[in-house]
Amino acid sequence: MATAKYIQRGETIDYTPQNDTGYLEVVPLASCIGVATEAIEKGKTGAVSLVGVYELPAATGLAIDVGDAVYWSKSDSCINKTAASNTPAGIAVAAKAEAGTTVLVKIG
Predict the structure, then answer these.
(1) Pairing relation of β-strands 52-57 and 26-28?
(2) Contacts made by residues 68-77, CB under 8 angstroms, sequence distance 24+
(3) What are the extents of the domains in the chain?
């Protein structure tokens, strides 16, 4: 039988960025996004949150409903509903009208 060793809750991870990362800046990872909980200098290690609800910039002209799966567009630096070529961000926890510029997202 395989066993596991408990390390931590996993709400934050250590992250070493290739560019300076600002406080509360979205960090696209391979299969999800995180949010920097501190400013992290290039090449230094800092904390990135993998859970929580954050207000994030969102694509205009796009309505988002509560529970919609949403994605982070690296090219536009905002949330949209298109999975292709984007990073999974989480689910919307509040509706966003087409004219809205932000959306509340439960990341993770």
Answers:
(1) unpaired
(2) 68/92, 70/103, 70/105, 72/26, 72/28, 72/33, 74/28, 77/26
(3) 12-107
Inter-residue contact 34 to 107 (CB < 8 Å): yes
The whole-angstrom separation of Cα 67 and Cα 56 is: 15
Give the CA angle between residues 43, 90, 98 to the nearest 5°: 110
pLDDT in tens, 5-28: 999 999 999 999 999 999 999 999
Q: What is the pTM of this model?
A: 0.92
| Dihedral in degrees, nearest 10, Cα atoms 31, 32, 35, 40 | 0
The C-alpha atoms of residue 79 and residue 103 are separated, in whole angstroms, by: 8
Architecture of domain 12-107: Beta Barrel (2.40)
CA distance 41 to 58: 26
Report the DSSP pairing between strands 12-15 and 102-107: unpaired
